[in-house]
Write a structure and sequence with these properties.
339 residues, mainly alpha, two-stranded antiparallel ribbon, 14 helices, 2% strand, globular
């Protein structure tokens, strides 16, 4: 790690500079556009999960895959936190941390149970589509975060696109218990998002927040992993699948997500992650030779429109009235990563 005084680098053009031609890293990390980009990149990582599972070994148990992903992912996040995160000195809200960990575990279990009961199409659209609405409402109730018209319109547009995207790819059979489980999954995701936002607002580093929250979730899911792990987990393909899911769509993705969430409202961050099913559809076509229908393509267009309306607005978070925490000191880390 470079000394704390090494917080600037030379830039060529287009960035805020001081009198000696340098730009402070924290100016970039605190930029709302960069925060939105981090969340969008996280959603792209999330969207690779389904394709990775499809390419994995036969006989895998969805609950075992989900539990293994979180358990190993939590360990990876702990390593990242030790290497990258500087202790903030702020006390940890144990209640909020416990609730966030429960949200992580609940999302995994409820989502896979919902998909098993009501099918991939309905389970996915209800869980992913309800997450931003739950996140916005929870943030409003717990932190008085304002709900803007732009957020509501963008969320509605993107959720409609997700519905067309998922339902256009398969026949749908609705099960009331399955829909209830999918809603529980959406609420679990929203709970995790809002509690993580609160911990970030308390001054904790994004890597530390992810490691602590997923650590709690991982401990809760160890019994699930023990009960569902079969012979597939000990094969090279099974180990490779879990390792990939732990490193890319968990450790890397959630560090990016937390980086963005630090300077965005929880509802807006949740809406931006609706790029996940769009990525999954694109990978399905490119890697698995799936052919999306015209309805699915129309849904993809709506998702892109909703995300563009939210992510490309020229107004800053302060102009919208969203709560943005004060900037924390940022250091440039050796090896190309920055916090």
């Amino acid at each position: 790690m470079l000394p704390s005084t090494a917080r600037a680098f030379h830039c060529t053009s287009g960035h805020p500079q001081d009198s000696q031609g340098t730009v402070d890293i924290h100016i970039l990390w605190n930029n709302p556009a960069v925060s939105r980009l981090c969340v969008l990149l996280a959603a792209v990582c999330f969207g690779t999960t389904g394709t990775a599972q499809a390419l994995g070994p036969d006989g895998t148990d969805p609950l075992g895959v989900g539990a293994g992903r979180i358990v190993l992912g939590a360990a990876c996040l702990a390593v990242v936190a030790m290497l990258a995160a500087r202790p903030s000195g702020a006390p940890w809200d144990r209640r909020r941390l416990a609730i966030g960990g429960i949200g992580v575990a609940a999302y995994q279990l409820a989502f896979f149970a919902a998909v098993k009961d009501t099918g991939v199409a309905v389970g996915t659209v209800v869980a992913i589509g309800s997450g931003p609405a739950f996140a916005g409402l929870l943030a409003r109730l717990t932190d008085q975060t304002p709900l803007t018209r732009r957020w509501a319109a963008s969320t509605a547009l993107a959720c409609a696109g997700v519905a067309l995207l998922v339902l256009g790819g398969d026949s749908a059979a609705v099960s009331v218990p399955g829909v209830a489980l999918a809603l529980a999954a959406g609420a679990g995701y929203a709970t995790y998002t809002v509690t993580a936002k609160g911990l970030l607002d308390d001054g904790h580093a994004p890597e530390a927040v992810m490691a602590a929250t997923f650590g709690v979730g991982g401990v809760l899911l160890v019994p699930v992993l023990a009960a569902t792990a079969g012979d597939w987990l000990l094969t090279p393909g099974g180990l490779g699948l879990i390792a990939y899911l732990a490193v890319i769509p968990t450790a890397l993705a959630y560090v990016l997500f937390a980086r963005g969430l630090r300077h965005l409202a929880a509802g807006e961050a949740a809406t931006l992650t609706l790029a996940e099913p769009l990525t999954a559809t694109a990978l399905g076509a490119l890697v698995l030779a799936e052919r999306p229908s015209a309805l699915a393509l129309a849904g993809a267009g709506l998702v892109l429109a909703g995300l563009a309306a939210l992510a490309l607005s020229p107004r800053t978070a302060q102009q919208r009235g969203d709560a943005v925490p004060p900037a924390a000191p940022v250091e440039v880390l050796a090896g190309g990563s920055a916090r």
